[in-house]
């Protein structure tokens, strides 16, 4: 059969294009101008979708890249094994670790393909075909597939599915051209009915839900701010609209302006956390940043305080307390607040290093006292101001060394139990 000239020039045999539309190829090619940017690693933990601004080019790029692989098994690279093609296929069926990279010769690759076909497992066949597509030329791949009817049918189905997913994502991409937020929300609502892959469907649903919520929050906060009803907006006027902001920016905004609201409100941090499946680490980091910015040290303390069944309280955190100290210091936390969290750092050397960096004298003095390190106390006494409260504290500890450490002579080893 006849097929488009631009495809003919690529060297593919006509049979491979029976199932394709010319428009599909054009759509896929038109993506290139959209996805030239490279992904950058975020400094924070990932959430259910990337922290890029809603509908950004990079977010769509990520979805486009995943469209060809999210449904099927991943091909693990750089994993060396001596498994035969038969053993490898069995591992693939069992969901165990496997590698296809070891099958380098054409003969080995074809043996692997034949074993996959004999296993009658569509996912395994497709996974092998994806590997062959990357490692063989189009001519050789087609020559071998044409003699393997089952494998050829799977390959055509795979390519058709990839084309359909990319066309759907092209349609979703059109929201970038919609400027009015209400019209964009309605456009995204229509996209919810598209047969996306599971991962992409979740992304689009989150995008729609987030924008719908942002529209409600923006309208309410704009009215409250203009009326002068809330002190928070008087003291910290909003610098920008919340519309079309990323989910993490929205959470930060919520922790800043709507902290303490009931879970039933769209703007409450707890509601946003639950709706968008934000991890404990991400939520804590974002909330900590917002409350520390406001100097709300009581709220900061409450973030880490837990109570056991006996009523005793203890500070716990899913992230290291050294990171918390750095965040607090960047927000100009007072020394007393910093000291409380430097004290919670478990590693002694790291604790002393942080205490020295942020001039938490009490932490250093108490740590050397607990270590019974008399010599270090003497050294540190020379670093603080003579006559200061810290100097007097060190003097008191050294003068009470007999009671504290059981000393009988000032000349003792550096560390004495």
Automatic annotation (TrEMBL):
<dbReference type="InterPro" id="IPR040057">
    <property type="entry name" value="Spe-39"/>
</dbReference>
<protein>
    <recommendedName>
        <fullName>Spermatogenesis-defective protein 39 homolog</fullName>
    </recommendedName>
</protein>
<dbReference type="GO" id="GO:0007034">
    <property type="term" value="P:vacuolar transport"/>
</dbReference>
<dbReference type="GO" id="GO:0005770">
    <property type="term" value="C:late endosome"/>
</dbReference>
<dbReference type="GO" id="GO:0006886">
    <property type="term" value="P:intracellular protein transport"/>
</dbReference>
<keyword id="KW-0968">Cytoplasmic vesicle</keyword>
<dbReference type="GO" id="GO:0005769">
    <property type="term" value="C:early endosome"/>
</dbReference>
<keyword id="KW-0967">Endosome</keyword>
